[in-house]
Design goal:
The chain is 46% helix and 15% strand. It has 246 residues and is an alpha/beta fold. Strands 1-7-6-2-5-3-4 form a 7-stranded mixed sheet, with helices on both faces.
Length: 246
Amino acid sequence: MIRLILIALFLFLFLVLTIPVLLVEWILGKFAPAAKDKSCRAIVNWGFRIITLIAGAKVIVRGQENIPSDTAVLYVGNHRSYFDIVLTSNCFPGITGYVAKAEMMRYPFLNFWMKNIHCLFLNRDNIREGMKTILEGIEDVKKGISLVIFPEGTRNKTPDTFLPFHVGSLKIAEKGGVPIVPMTIVNSAGVFEDHLPKVKRATVIIDFGKPILVGGLNKEERKNLSGLVSSQISRRYFALKEEYGL
């Protein structure tokens, strides 16, 4: 429980003590949006590194050479833990936001930092609002901002299984004209969810697969795009579990 208490205390202090920083970032964004993007990303990633250190998580990152350097991408990953965002955020080479559930908007100051790093908030219960978010995502990737999405729609609470990928979420890549980079996360639930309410040391694997160019797929592959991406992540997941003995 000590690790959980320390993480909660750090998060509370971070959100409170950075209130003046939010004001500075707001002003900076009026005159130098690119500088604001870089500074917000650096601050948030620093916070996530501290949380990862407190949690005692060992993160092994593989396949970063598969991430295109000349375009924004849509990272598509499996989702098992609250720590998935914390552990993956420092792995991306450029400005990258997350597609998060709309409920995250309820948390004061946290929602401001999320907006500052280009997170989008998806309402899963309102089709019209959900479509607006997808359209925002399409515009973001066209502007060069990469996004991370977990198409299962929620944390999968059953170990070693995958929920169906929602087809609409991948429209960001298809309509935005950017590659999909499969992101396989192994054992992130070993940090917290597998033994609630304790936070324990765990080895977590984050693996980036080769980019999928939607425009280069045939008609049948594009029709079954969610299944294609899901199957790639699933195969990689079990291969990595066996390789690392997790």
